[in-house]
Amino acid sequence: MAMLSDFIPPGDDAVRLPTPTLAIHLLRYFIVASAAGHTPLFHPGNIVNVPSWAGHDLGSNPRGFLRAMAEAWAWLESESETGYPYFVTRRGQQLAKEVEPLRRLTDEARLAAGLHPLIEARIRQQFLLGEYELAAFAALRQVEIRVRELAGASESSLGVALMKEAFKADGPLADSSLDKGERDATMALFWGAIGVFKNPTSHRQVDYKDRTQAAEVILLADLLLRMLDDIAERLKSANT
After folding, report:
1. Is residue 81 part of a domain?
2. How many Cβ atoms sit within 10 Å of the Cβ of residue 129?
3. Which of 3, 27, 176, 238 is 20 to 30 A from 94, alpha carbon to alpha carbon?
4. What pLDDT does 37 receive?
5. 3-state secondary structure 56-96
6. pLDDT, mean of residues 201-226
7. Residues 6+ apart with CB under 8 A from 184
8. Whole-number Å distance between alpha carbons of 50 and 90
């Protein structure tokens, strides 16, 4: 049977931990204890009852320890979207297996504020499914498609060559109101993003072991799409 001390630090040590870290300790205990049919703590009321912690070191401030554990429970509820009856959700099971569960949550939160409408639904779903390479590639491919549409380029126009042609000094997407340095920098930004992060995945297998990098690539694509929205508005105004 799982021992509390195998998962939950002694009272004073537990109180010093950040709430999310302490919550992951509690989550991992729940999984092992539930499998053994031992779930006296698996209720918010029991979490704050001293008898539920029989045999565990509550430290110099038992009240503070119980409050810290109640905060950890509340954090788990907010992250796992569970309700009564209480159980470890599929998301909780996945988080407990992660080497760095809090990093995973942080990376997912990077994309939680809302992506550009052209990539919101599909890209977020792919990322949450762990398809990091596909999500990053698809996000930048949408940038390429949008540039092609706005520039009126042919379907055969691709990658870096498309970006350079669209944003060159007299290109269809270049902003003549900017000085040459800014125009060149805008072109470099687009073809650099496509050349570094989109084209390699087209030509060879790219393994995004770093989930954070994949999230940042998606956010870069989001920024480029929003810049293209501004360009579309400028082109529209110029034609009216």
Report:
1. yes
2. 10
3. 3
4. 72
5. CCCCCCHHHHHHHHHHHHHHHHHHHCCCCCCCCCHHHHHHH
6. 79
7. none
8. 29
